[in-house]
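FAQ: What does a ligand-bound record look like?

Like this one, built around magnesium ion:
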Amino acid sequence: MSSAPPLQMTGGRVRFDGREALSGVDLRVGAGEFLAVLGANGSGKSTLVRALLGLVPLSGGRTEIYGVPPARFRDWKRVGYVPQRLPAGGGVPATVREIVASGRVARRSRWRPASSADRAAVDAALRAVGLADRARDSAHLLSGGQQRRVLIARALAGEPDVLVMDEPTAGVDAASQAALAAILRELAGRGRTVVLVAHELGPLEPLIDRCVVMEHGRVAHEGAPPPPAWSRAAQAEDPHHHGPREGARSDEIGMRAG
Ligand SMILES: Nc1ncnc2c1ncn2[C@@H]1O[C@H](COP(=O)(O)OP(=O)(O)OP(=O)(O)O)[C@@H](O)[C@H]1O
Ligand SMILES: [Mg+2]
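The answer part, i.e. the structure of the complex:
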C-alpha cells in the first residue's frame, strides 16, 4: 500500500444542481510531485481539489488518498489543505495562534496536551508566513491577505506529506508571495507533494513539475510548465475574473481530524 500515490482520481464526476462541474477526470499525483492546476474562473479547479480530498462527493468514478477512498481514509495528519474561501465569521473569535495550532490536531493523540514539538511547529509556521508578531491577535481583525496566510500556516503546522492549496496567493502581496515560494521550495526539496491551484504562477512557476489546465470540468491540457500561451490568454481575457468569491461554505472550514 505504501506505493499508492498521494492522490489519484479515475473518471471523477461531480454534479451540482444537475450540472456537471467535473466531467470524467483522470488524475494521478505522484509522491514528491509539484502539480499546478490552472484554468479560467468556473472551470472546475476548486471542485477538482475538493473532490480529490473527499470534501465534495463524486457522482461517478473514484478517488483515493494514499490508496484509500476519502470516506475510509484515516491518516489526515498526512494531508494539508488551504481552502480558497475563508470561513465566514461568527462563532467564537479565535487568535491567529489558535487557528494555526488547530493544524496540529490530527497529529495529537487524543488525551495529550500540546507537546513542545506541537508548539515548535506552530511557531515555525507562524514565522514562515510572517505572522509571528500577530500570534495573539484575533484573526478576524486581520486583512484578507493576512487571513489567507493564517490558513497557509495552519496547513504548514501539520507538517503534511501532501499539501493542497487553492489559490493561496490570491490577494496576497508580492513580498508574501515570494515568502510562500521560498517555503514551498523547501517543502519540495524535502520530497513533499504539492497541488497548487492558481490563476497565475508568478514566483512559483520554477517549482512546478507539471500543469493541468481545466476547462469546463475537464482536463484540457496536461504537461510540463510553462502553461500554454492560449490558456494564459484565456485567463487574462476572462471577464468574470474576480478572484476568490466572497462568502464561505462551511464544509471548507477545515480538514477532518482523526
Ligand atoms: N457548491 C456548489 N454548488 C453549486 N455549484 C457549484 C458549487 N461549487 C462550484 N459550483 C459550480 O461548479 C463550477 C466549477 O466551480 P469551481 O469553483 O470548481 O471553479 P474554479 O475553477 O475553482 O473557479 P474560480 O477560479 O472562480 O475559483 C462553476 O460553474 C460553479 O458555479
Ligand atoms: Mg476556485
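Follow-up question: can I read anything off the structure? Yes, for example: Helices lie at 45-52, 96-101, 116-128, 144-157, 174-189, 229-237.
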